[in-house]
Amino acid sequence: MAEPAAGFLDPVVDEDGAPFWEYAARGELRVQTCAECGEPRFPPRPCCPHCRSFADTWRRMSGHGRIWSFVVPHPPLLPAYAGVAPYNAVLVELTDAPRIRLAGNVVAAPGAPLDSVDPARLRIGAGVRVVFAPAAPGGMPVPRWLLERG
Ligand SMILES: [Zn+2]
Fold first, then answer.
1. Long-range contacts: 76-79, Cβ < 8 Å, 24+?
2. CB atoms within 10 A of CB 84
3. Rounded distance between C-alpha atoms, residue 82 and residue 17, angstroms
4. Residue 98: its pLDDT value, please?
5. Rounded to an integer, what distance in angstroms lies between the CA atom of residue 119 and that of residue 71?
6. Residue 4's pLDDT is what?
7. How far is the CA of 102 from the centre of ligand 1 (A)?
8. In a designed cystine with 87, which of 22, 96, 114, 120 is the match (CB 3.0 to 4.6 A)?
9. Phi and psi based region of residue 28 (left: phi greater than 0; alpha: psi -120 to 50; beta: remaining)
10. Pairing status of strand 64-71 against strand 127-134
11. Running DSSP on this structure, what letter comes out for residue 121?
């Protein structure tokens, strides 16, 4: 388990997923994509489930997406999370790869806390765009989501 920042959990980085987090640290949202058939896949893994190729590339995404689903966690939660509940946890469908859905949180600004957006403002299908910031000071930069206007 990665070292938590102020009680919040950092992602666990494995060999297949390491490039995702290296790009994230540079502010780029990239998705592992088959170099043979062009299908994006997530979570990262060695072999393409469509054509069984082991050749891959990391395709840069626009960073735009839509809320595919969301939940509003309430305690019991880990203490750091209980302190900011209720907040939101969203699944975002990427505009550039609609079968890819990333878990995250909608926040008011890149470094804002988990409870910075009232869950009542969220709607399935709402447009969002990615930003990268640690979930808590000292943590790893992770994809977070801002609501798009309109
Ligand atoms: Zn393939």
1. 78/7, 78/9, 79/7
2. 16
3. 28
4. 94
5. 9
6. 53
7. 20
8. 114
9. beta
10. antiparallel
11. G
* 18 contacts: CB under 8 Å, gap ≥ 6: none
Q: Which has more pLDDT, 4 or 43?
A: 43
Distance 12 CA to ligand 1 centre (A): 26
More confident residue, 28 or 2: 28
In the reported structure, the alpha carbon of residue 8 is separated from the centroid of ligand 1 by a whole-number distance in angstroms of 36
CA of 16 relative to ligand 1 center, distance in Å:
16
Query: For residues 90 and 98, what is the distance between their CA atoms, to the nearest angstrom?
Result: 15
DSSP 39: -
Distance, in Å, from the CA atom of 69 to the CA atom of 10, rounded to the nearest integer, reads 22
Give the up-direction half-sphere exposure of residue 140: CA atoms within 13 A in the CB hemisphere. Answer: 18
Q: 127 C-alpha to center of ligand 1: Å?
A: 29
